[in-house]
Specification:
magnesium, 365 residues, 11 helices, Isopropylmalate Dehydrogenase, 21% strand, alpha/beta, two-stranded antiparallel ribbon, 12 strands
Length: 365
């Protein structure tokens, strides 16, 4: 999306949604604004969505929000949503719906140690999660059994089309990471050769996961540009085990929707907190940044939510739009704050507020 560099203005939809999403998204906005003339003048468009929006007006994702994103925005930022754990008639997750409406078929979640930070094991991976199908198609039914009990069935969808395009996204990311390492003077990279690990459970789900595995591998083997990328596979349960034992082993991991969701949250524990891990929901025509953490109602309104995941997600958004240098400025500022260790929110063992951490990052941008 390098064409975005020719724009004279940058229009970003801002969807704070629920809980601490309303507290951390302003930090992302301020980080973008702090770049000044390094990017086109940004305009931030506030938009509604979320569980609280559903409770007020009966719709978690207003049609107006979707139309403005499609017709007026260059990209977007999403905060967090408080979806109920039980079925509520008429409610469906707005973030899942947004991914479908905007065809944001990939959720890209980098998880990495801070360069220069003293750690037991280097973490430097990107989890590329298919975003549109698997069990998240939400086709479930419940019926009565002859013995008086109940049976609940969930339909799982895997298509070759979705699997191939998420595979292509993963191989393109691995290709770019390999190029970045070859051009860098940094000697602490965990991977000399780019690698894509296909995550599946085809030893049990031979039809659905089998199709995912075969489709992704086909993409990697068919394109000569990917010849230098190592292709491996990992059964999802053994991958989780290895993730905690040998996190340095993984480079780019590509997974169906559910597995990707679970392993990326688990990977966040390796770097200290969900409050540090960013993501973008990406399609061919639109990108939306989203911190990996949830709405955290237990700390809502206390000014102690970690804003770093949201700020890093803003950097990922800018990078996806072609503003690589400005994005790197934000990332570098965050890394320096983490290295100094003076401004840490409670999830990292500190006593700093959301405001404290945001201000520390802004000073370094």
């Amino acid at each position: 999306m390098a064409a975005a560099l020719k724009r004279t203005a940058l229009r970003i939809g801002m969807i704070p949604a629920d809980g601490i999403g309303r507290e951390v998204l302003p930090a992302a906005q301020m980080a973008i604004e702090a770049l000044g003339s390094a990017i086109p003048k940004p305009t931030f468009i506030p938009l509604l969505a979320g569980w609280e929006e559903f409770q007020k007006r009966g719709k978690a994702l207003p049609d107006e929000t979707v139309q403005i994103l499609k017709n007026e925005c260059d990209g977007a930022m999403f905060g967090a949503v408080s979806s109920p754990s039980h079925k509520v008639e008429g409610y469906s997750s707005p973030i899942v719906a947004l991914r479908k409406h905007l065809d944001l078929y990939a959720n890209v979640r980098p998880v990495s140690s801070v360069p220069g930070q003293k750690v037991d094991k280097i973490v430097d991976m990107v989890i590329v999660r298919e975003n549109t199908e698997c069990l998240y198609v939400k086709r479930e039914k419940i019926s009565d059994l002859p013995n008086g009990g109940k049976i609940a069935i969930a339909e799982r969808q895997i298509t070759s089309t979705a699997s191939e395009r998420i595979g292509k996204m993963a191989f393109e990311i691995a290709l770019r990471r390999g190029q970045e390492r070859s051009e860098s003077t940094w000697e602490g990279w965990a991977h000399a050769q780019p690698k894509v690990t296909i995550i599946h459970k085809s030893n049990v789900l031979s039809v659905t996961d089998g199709l995912f595995r075969e489709s992704v591998r086909k993409v990697g083997e068919a394109d000569p540009r990917y010849k230098g990328i190592k292709i491996e596979e990992q059964i999802v349960d053994s991958m989780v085990y290895r993730l905690f034992r040998e996190p340095e082993y993984f480079d780019v991991c590509v997974a169906p929707n559910l597995y990707g969701d679970i392993i990326s949250d688990g990977a966040a524990a390796l770097v200290g907190s969900l409050g540090l891990v960013p993501s973008v929901n990406a399609g061919d025509d639109f990108v939306m940044g989203e911190p990996v953490h949830g709405s955290a109602p237990d700390i809502e309104g206390k000014n102690i939510a970690n804003p770093i995941a949201s700020i890093r997600s803003a950097a990922l958004l800018l990078s996806s739009l072609g503003y690589y240098g400005p994005a790197a400025r934000i990332t570098s500022a965050v890394d320096r704050v983490l290295l100094e260790g003076k401004h840490m929110t409670p999830d990292l063992g500190g006593r700093s507020t959301t405001t404290d951490v945001t201000e520390a990052v802004l000073k370094l941008i």
